[in-house]
Structures are given as C-alpha cells and as structure tokens.
Fold this protein.
Amino acid sequence: MKKEDLPQEPGALSRLTRELCYVKNEDGKYETALSKGWDVKKEALDSAWDNVNDRVEEARKAVANGEKSPVYYFMELRLMDLTVLAGYTGFFSFFIKRHLKPSVFKELSDKKLQKYANAFDITVDELKNFKG
Amino acid sequence: MNTDIRTEEFHHVQAAHCENGVTTALLRHHGLDFMTEPLAFGMGSGLFYIQIPFLTINNGPAISFRTMPGAIFARTCKALGVEVSRKKFSSQEKAQLFLDKKISEGVPVGCQVGVFHLTYFPKEYRFHFNAHNLIVYGREGDQYNISDPIMEDVTHLSAQELNRVRFAQGPLAPKGHIYFPERIGAINDDLIRKGIVTGIKRNVRDMLRIPGNFAGVDGIRHTSNHIRKWRDKLGLKKASLYLGQIVRMQEEIGTGGGGFRFLYGAFLEESAAWLQDDRLANLSEDFTRAGDLWRGSAIKMAGVYKGRLTEQKDFEEIADMLVNIREVEKEAFQKLSKLNLGK
C-alpha cells in the first residue's frame, strides 16, 4: 500500500488513537504512517454489532415470553458465551445451561445469583427482577 | 506515604501490533536500540495463517493471520540470547504484589490482558478478546502508568481496572500473565543476522510445511473452500457475518491479514540491509503485493456485509481471490526458502 492510499476514514478507534500502519513512500521504501481508520473495517465492526444487538433483542423476547431466564439475556448483553460466563462465575457450563431455564433460575440461592450479578456488573435485584 | 514508582526513562513505542510493540519497547529499554517492530515480528516468525478447526469466536470462524500469542516475544528474545521471565498467578493479590515489586525495581513489564473491561478502549472494540498486550512502567498512587503499543501516547489504569483486565476470563485467559527480559547477554551484528535467518526459515516452515490443510498457505485455500459453501449452508445473513468476522480478524487494529503482510515486507527490507542481500529487498515486494490483495479481498467482502453483493457468484469471486493470495504467498515463501541464507 502506498502512503497516499492510506485511508483516513474515522471510526470508533479514532476517538482513542490513530493507528500505526506500514506503507510505501515515494522512493518505494517502507515507512510508518498514522491512519484515522478505514470504512471497510468500520462497517465490519458495525455489522458485528448489528448482530450482537439482534441477539440481545431476541434474548429479551425469550425472557419476556418465559422461555429463558434473565441469565440468558445478560449473557448476550455482555457478549458472553457459556465458556466466558463459566470463567467469570466459576460454574461449569453444564450448570449454566440449566440456569438458563426459568424454572431452575427461580430456585437459585442468593449466593449463586451474586456470582452471576458480579459477572454481569449488575445487582442481584436487577438480575432477579428482569422481566424482558 | 509516597507510593509513586516510576521506571527509569521509559520510552513509549507505538506499533501496528501489540505484541510486536511490547517486544520492541522492552528490548529497546534494555539497550537494544536497533530493535524495530518489523525486526521483532520477523525474528519471531510472526506471519501465519490458520483457520482453527471446530472453534468459533464471537459466533464466527476462528481465523488468525499471525502466529500464536506470546511466540513473537519468546522467539525474538531467544534469538538474541535474552533471558526472559514469565509468571502467571492464582490470585489477583499475588499478581499485583509481584507487579509492584518489579516496577519498584525499575523494571517495565509486559502484561497480557483482556480487552472487554479495558476502560480506555472504545466500547465498540470491547469484545472478549484476551490476548492483548501492554506495558506497565510505573505507578503514581492508585494509578498505573500504561504504555499500550496501539496508542499514540501513554495512558493509565487504576489498580482495580488493571487487576480486572489481567484476570479476564474465557479462552486464552491471561491469569495475570506478566513477562519481561531478565538478563541481556552480549549482542553483536552476527547474532542479529543469525536471528533474522532463523526467523525467516522458521516462517518458511510454518507457512509451507506445517501438517494439515487448515494452516499455513494451505489454510487460506481451506477458508476459500468454506466461503464457497457458506451462502447455501448458512444463509446469506450468517454468511455475511462470517465474512465480516474475517475482515475484523484481518484488519484488527492496524494489522491483521493485510497489515501483517506489509509488516513482513518491511522486515525483509530491513533484513536486506542487515544481510547485505538485495534479493530480500526484491522479495519484500511479493509480500507488499500479498498485503494489497488481502486488502482488495476485504473491500469485496465489505460489499457482501453491506448488502450490496448477494449472489453466489460474489462468494465464488471472493473465494477465488483467496486462492490467488495463497498462490502469491506460496510462491513468495518458496523463493525465500531457496535463497540459501546459510545458518
């Protein structure tokens, strides 16, 4: 990539920093230059977030309809999957899967709920009372 | 009580990729002034391609355009006879105590962190990605001085914020992973030249001769075969998301597929000077071409996830572009392999 072709199309990262890139200068030698961003990247990130938002909305509906427990909603909201949530709570994925059922969730002790609340950065009340 | 600790004159280095940046800055701090990001990347045989089987990341294909996390630092140090210390911890308290001890001794250290809770990152970039690297080089009260190589300038994190990202959970969980050069031996130009040659040869091996069809240059073909099937198998929506994921992996913060190829081109250009060998400078062009082709493929993929391109023939064209990239990279590495650079 030639230096003059380096895109300068601001994306989310440009609020924090410009990115260092390796480009070819006029003499055909490599040098570094700073880029504000590239629309192709920005749109890839946007499309990933559209997908996240769709999943969160579906999860919300599933909780509202009584198909899933609030754990499912907050897991999606925090971009987690079973592996990541297992890491943050210390529960095995097998148990987390059970806790996604509203009937099992209702019976959870406050101690277990607290672990979920910590993982999600919310209070136990917020977790318990989420209705979708 | 004065809790301010600062290591001697630490100089921040901005880099295209975090691990290269940490490696370069730490080695320069220890007097290896010749170290540059391309040199660290090349000596560490950083260029790679792999589509990891049976694994999905953020619900998409797991693709990496560089070697495994930690390898660049480890290999580059080893090539230069630099002894490295690394530690992981069972508790946040122990991890913080050790960190405080090192920086009070005036030693800047590399830390592996997760970006999900990394407060200074823009929210849009905060996924559960646990192989980010930064340098801690001092402490003022509750605030740690942070040199994050992707940034133009230094920043800081509170003790709590830093503990949290050092103990991020999920795949590749850092577990407080901390690393730093322990002892530097005698370094001369011969050792550097040797390191360059070893780095190139190992990279040739990784890209051309790694077993299996999902890694090295053959991995690129593996992905292209998948892409041909995605539209029918997954539906257009999911297939577009998958392509978006490739571009995100490819162009993730400065580097990725395109960027790493340019970086390797820059490395070969520097190597040509170190080894007094113009053939390397010529081969640098091949990697520049590969980088440009990766960027071209990203633009085409963007057409799909923006909803402008929707036909099977578009997926076929993208797959063909990847087959072409494989050819270019394969040929470039074969040429490198035949150079006879000595030991």
Notes: Residues 216-250 of chain B form the longest helix (35 residues). The CA atoms of residues 167 and 334 of chain B lie 42 Å apart.
